[in-house]
């Protein structure tokens, strides 16, 4: 499976590159399982502070789940595949370390669902986004019917899912599906810069923010606010909060230790 996944680690940033050029980086089962193992590594490895996920080449981020592999699935096998893809998405979303998808081309179906499970998304101008499953007589299965409306609203998500049409990077930016569009040559350097602007903050504060943001989404507002208050209290038990506030008062840059 590692033929299909490349990884590098520099300055605390792991870059995972999905590499299946013959299939526009489409996700087959083996690749999804490989990404789950990589996510476990990201979680366990203290050297890794943040993750950038991208696709090899300039044509595709990920062009969806592997249609050729899916064609032979029984209904039960298809449900299991959806659960596997959803497990990967959930791991990403629940990661305490920030994850950015750097989208360098087609970002379709399961690819868009993978990108939406990242905490932030950057894209090159040639990126194209869509949930084209209806064209195949299918529906999204890796979380698209739920994460797309949460990101861009029910009306726009319904149109994309029912028509299967693609939108440009510019439209994705306008609709809030991506956070930034950078020129192709700038995509990785600027995405790394964005990640560094997060990693220089207190890691505990970043992790707690992610927990409050994502852990609150599916709760009633009162519960989610209660969770936020609890996390706000808990952050006052860290050394980083002392350092952060002292640095402000002493007019110097904070030196966060992640403790
Ligand atoms: N699965 C398997 N193979 C794929 C693929 C996919 N999702 N997308 C592209 N490929 C393969 C093509 O079959 C082709 O292989 P061959 O050379 O062996 O024929 C190769 O990648 C290059 O693709 P194209 O020749 O089609 O390239 P193109 O530039 O003409 O078109 C494209 C690009 C518009 C992205 C087109 O490839 C396409 O429509 N791909 C399918 C996109 C799609 O429907 N994705 C959703 C999949 S379903 C899903 O993801 C379900 C879910 O939610 C879990």
SSE blueprint:
Layout: E1 5-10, E2 13-18, H1 29-44, E3 50-55, E4 60-62, H2 67-70, H3 75-93, E5 99-103, E6 106-108, H4 110-117, E7 120-123, E8 128-130, H5 144-152, H6 154-163, E9 167-168, H7 169-175, E10 180-181, H8 187-199, H9 203-216, H10 221-235, H11 239-249
Parallel strand pairs: 2-3, 3-5, 4-6, 5-7, 6-8, 7-10
Antiparallel strand pairs: 1-2, 8-9
Helix pairs in contact: 1-3, 3-4, 4-5, 5-6, 9-10
The protein binds acetoacetyl-coenzyme A.
The site of acetoacetyl-coenzyme A has 23 residues, from helix 2, strand 6 and helix 4.
In words, what does this structure look like?
This protein has helices spanning about 30-45, 65-70, 75-95, 110-115, 145-150, 155-165, 170-175, 185-200, 205-215, 220-235, 240-250, and strands spanning about 5-10, 15-20, 50-55, 60, 100-105, 105-110, 120-125, 130, 165-170, 180. It is an alpha/beta fold. The longest helix is centred in the N-terminal third of the chain and has 19 residues, at about 75-95. The chain starts with a strand and ends in a 10-residue tail after the last helix. Helix content is about 50%, strand content about 15%. The chain is globular, with a radius of gyration of 19 Å. A six-stranded mixed sheet has the order 1-2-3-5-7-10, with helices on both faces. The model has no long low-confidence stretch (mean pLDDT about 95). The chain has two domains: about 5-200, 2-enoyl-CoA Hydratase, Chain A, domain 1, CATH 3.90.226.10; about 205-250, Orthogonal Bundle (Lyase 2-enoyl-coa Hydratase, Chain  A, domain 2), CATH 1.10.12. It binds acetoacetyl-coenzyme A (CAA). The site of acetoacetyl-coenzyme A has 23 residues, from helix 2, strand 6 and helix 4.
